[in-house]
């Protein structure tokens, strides 16, 4: 059996994902010591107060010293600078990974700076909430969610197996694929949904004839579903779009073509085309629920006032 | 105080909304008798088995006979035919209303056929789930949600007050506005979000390089939030877009302009513009939560496996 326990886990960044890893790793006894690096005094203080790390450093170099597992949990735009800085301090045999939402750009940013005596295995847990910061994390975040590893040919089989076991122990299902394919898949399942959600909230905010207070009052008609992901961390998402530009532009092109076709059907009152489009999408949701990636409870299991339990009207 | 109790409530159609009204009206004692009309034997049988109506008729004319409150709960495209058919059977002093998601077209479809001896007051409860049919309804659906009435100048003050009291008794907050403004407000808060959600699910379904099973597996990255409203009733939504064409095309034009601007920012790597757009949208969600139209629990309060309660990680 693969030894999943690490001696020192170093988390570079301790936001929603980093702090959830800290909690889950502690809960499942996956590391003897858990440390983090964070830029601000405030974040380090919160992480220590929450008792999710044993030590918190300002400088990532201090965090990675002696660590056998190093995880980048900062926005992707910071990776290259950090990689250059920590490279000389990395312990022999360490596994270096990350949780970034793009993978091709991460390999370019980190890969060239890594010494030969470590294993670099890019990773992406497909999990999250709209909240940010060390207090927003929770140990259950990864349960039942997929974690995608995109190892390059340099990574050792043993290291890949150990990192997989680490994610599996936190409740994840692990998949491996090449970075380019990852970036295409995530463009449609994650990046475009976020872009569209940010966009419609912006459009609504700009209207002259409909007030903000009206949009807020009547948001239960559908709009509020979009505001959840549009409340996600702006720095992280800016970096996602800058670093997965090609795949995002490709998928966005398809999305807008399809939307133009629906727009035309509305203008020309082609009810059959609309009905056909609206019918095929139901099956998709059923499959997502069956795959355990969504709740079957109506309205996402939101509690309805007057109910005594979520999703059980 | 306004007398909110009706003698006979006739629901034309008994799907998600109609059956929720039946349940809430019964729970709060708002009608001595509750009857419905439904096209299929199956729907009538389910409504009777659920004991949410006292009688179920195939012909709407039989349902409205002797009713002092008649509510259209079928897709908007059926309204005109039904209005013509029931007009001669409507009781003197009856209130006729509806729950359609568009209001200008409803006034055109029903208004001209209504006799002088009734009060016609179009209405729209801004509430729903992605599920359809009589078994999907529940009495709590309208609690804390807005119901918009768009009375024309012909409607009596007393009748408007009674209908408002009826919705208030079921837990709704009631607003009145003119039909044209309603259609503009709902285009952005409900119709465009549905169109976009239907569209992206369609786009994902068509990809050659990303399999359906990959979209399903990694949908927790954001995509699954869109599938909820894309699972809504296709007939109802076809009619919404056909009957609110002008407002939808206007709002869609703004949405696509804004999206083109974001697309350009991605292409030219304008990180500042992206960050600015992604930052302004957070405040919107906070306000929707503060207004009681959304849960503050992360991830909509979805239960995370391993949690013992929804939204309390």
What is the topology?
The structure is a homodimer of 313-residue chains.
Chain A: E1 6-12, H1 16-27, E2 31-37, H2 41-49, E3 55-57, H3 60-64, E4 69-72, H4 79-86, E5 95-98, H5 104-110, E6 119-120, E7 123-125, E8 146-149, H6 157-169, E9 173-176, H7 179-206, H8 212-217, H9 223-229, H10 234-243, H11 245-267, H12 271-290
Parallel strand pairs in A: 1-2, 1-4, 2-3, 4-5, 5-6, 8-9
Antiparallel strand pairs in A: 7-8
Helix pairs in contact in A: 4-5, 7-9, 7-11
- What fraction of the residues of chain A are assigned to beta strands by DSSP? 5-15%
What fold name goes in the CATH topology slot of the largest domain in chain A? Answer: Rossmann fold
How far apart, in Å, are the first and last alpha carbons of chain A? 45 Å
Radius of gyration of chain A: 21 Å
Oligomer: homodimer
So what's the CATH class of the largest domain in chain A? Alpha Beta
Order of helices and strands of chain A: EHEHEHEHEHEEEHEHHHHHH
Plain-language structure description:
- Two copies of one chain form a homodimer.
- Chain A is of the alpha/beta class and 313 residues long.
- In chain A, 47% of the residues lie in helices and 12% in strands.
- In chain A, the strands form two sheets. Chain A has a six-stranded parallel beta sheet. In chain A, strands 7-8-9 form a three-stranded mixed beta sheet, with helices on one face.
- In chain A, helix 5 (104-110) links the parallel strand 5 and strand 6.
- The model of chain A is unreliable at 309-313 (pLDDT under 50).
- At the A-B interface, helix 7, helix 8, helix 9, helix 10 and helix 11 of A face helix 7, helix 8, helix 9, helix 10 and helix 11 of B.
């Amino acid at each position: 059996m693969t030894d999943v326990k690490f001696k020192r886990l170093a988390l570079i960044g301790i936001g929603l994902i980093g702090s959830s890893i800290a909690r889950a790793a502690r809960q499942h006894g996956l590391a003897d010591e858990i440390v983090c690096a964070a830029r601000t005094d405030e974040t380090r203080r919160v992480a220590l107060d929450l008792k999710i790390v044993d030590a918190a450093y300002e400088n990532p170099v201090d965090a990675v010293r002696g660590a056998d597992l190093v995880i980048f949990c900062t926005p992707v735009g910071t990776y290259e600078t950090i990689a250059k800085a920590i490279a000389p301090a990395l312990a022999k045999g360490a596994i270096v990974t990350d949780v970034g939402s793009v993978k091709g750009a991460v390999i370019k940013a980190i890969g060239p700076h890594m010494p030969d005596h470590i294993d670099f295995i890019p990773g992406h847990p497909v999990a999250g909430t709209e909240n940010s910061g060390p207090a927003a994390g929770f140990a259950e975040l990864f349960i039942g969610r997929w974690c995608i590893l995109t190892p390059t040919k340099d990574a050792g089989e043993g290291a890949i197996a150990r990192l997989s076991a680490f994610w599996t122990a936190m409740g994840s299902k692990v998949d491996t694929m090449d970075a380019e394919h990852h970036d295409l898949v995530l463009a449609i399942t994650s990046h475009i949904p976020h872009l569209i959600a940010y966009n419609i909230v912006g459009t609504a905010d700009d209207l002259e004839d409909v007030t903000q207070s009206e949009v807020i009052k009547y948001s239960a008609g559908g709009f509020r579903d979009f505001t959840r992901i549009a409340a996600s961390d702006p720095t992280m998402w800016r970096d996602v779009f800058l670093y997965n530009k090609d795949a995002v532009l490709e998928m966005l092109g398809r999305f807008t073509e399809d939307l133009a076709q629906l727009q035309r059907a509305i203008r020309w009152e082609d009810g059959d085309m609309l009905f056909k489009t609206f019918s095929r999408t139901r099956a998709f949701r059923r499959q997502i629920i069956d795959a355990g990636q969504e709740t079957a409870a109506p309205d996402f299991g939101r509690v309805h006032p007057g109910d005594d339990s979520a999703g059980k009207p």
